[in-house]
Amino acid sequence: MEKRVVYTSLAPSPVGPYSQAIVAKGEFIFVAGQIPINPETGEIVGEGDIVAQTRQVMRNIGAILKQEGLGWENVVKTGVFLQDLNDFAAMNEVYSQYFPSSPPARSCVQVARLPKDVLVEIECIAVR
Predict the structure, then answer these.
(1) For the chain, which residues make up each domain, given as ranges?
(2) What is the mean pLDDT of residues 94-99?
(3) DSSP state of 45
(4) Which one-letter DSSP state was computed for residue 35?
(5) Which residues are annotated as catalytic?
(6) Is the pLDDT reported for residue 105 higher than 90?
(7) In angstroms, how far is CA 26 from the centroid of its own chain?
(8) How far apart are CA 111 and CA 97, in angstroms?
(9) 59: which residues sit within 8 A by CB, 6+ positions away?
(10) Angle between helices 88-98 and 50-67 (to 10 degrees)
(11) 59-91 pLDDT tens trace
(12) DSSP labels for 32-57?
């Protein structure tokens, strides 16, 4: 199988044994779960603020997509992980701005804990 690692300095560097994204067979881009880390400072953005954290997560994903010459219209599936489903409406308000029409399929679940105790993590799959 053809597989290539994607890396951009405009998104946070991986903090473990994973890649920012993988391109498979030249068409499918699997973006690893992104948390609200500012790639310039390495710091968590918006502690306790789901809106600020969701915006940063979407910026990080956008930078990875852009590295591959893709945009939000190429995203076909997302997975959203929330520390608290009570934050769903606020997260969704920000998220929906990136998909004004034909939004991708999506899963959204509440989890017990996320890396660095952030409020949200989002992953996606895009297609050329």
Answers:
(1) 3-127
(2) 98
(3) S
(4) -
(5) 108
(6) yes
(7) 20
(8) 24
(9) none
(10) 30
(11) 999 999 999 999 999 999 999 999 999 999 999
(12) EEE-SB-TTT-PBSSTT-HHHHHHHH
Give the whole-angstrom CA distance, residue 87 versus residue 92: 8
Q: Are 106 and 98 in contact (CB under 8 A)?
A: no
* pLDDT computed for residue 15 by the predictor: 81
CATH, domain range 3-127: 3.30.1330.40
In the chain, the largest separation of any two C-alpha atoms, in whole Å, equals: 41
CA dihedral 45, 98, 111, 90 (to 10 degrees): 70
DSSP, residue by residue, 5-31: EE--TTSPPPSSS--SEEEETTTEEEE
d(CA 117, CA 100): 29
- Amino acid at position 98, single letter: Y
Is the pLDDT assigned to residue 25 strictly greater than 90? no
Judge contact between 43 and 53, C-beta under 8 A.
no
Burial 34-66 (b: 16+ CB within 10 A, else e): bbbbebeeeebbbeeebebbbbbbbbbbbbbbe
Q: How far apart are CA 57 and CA 95, in angstroms?
A: 10
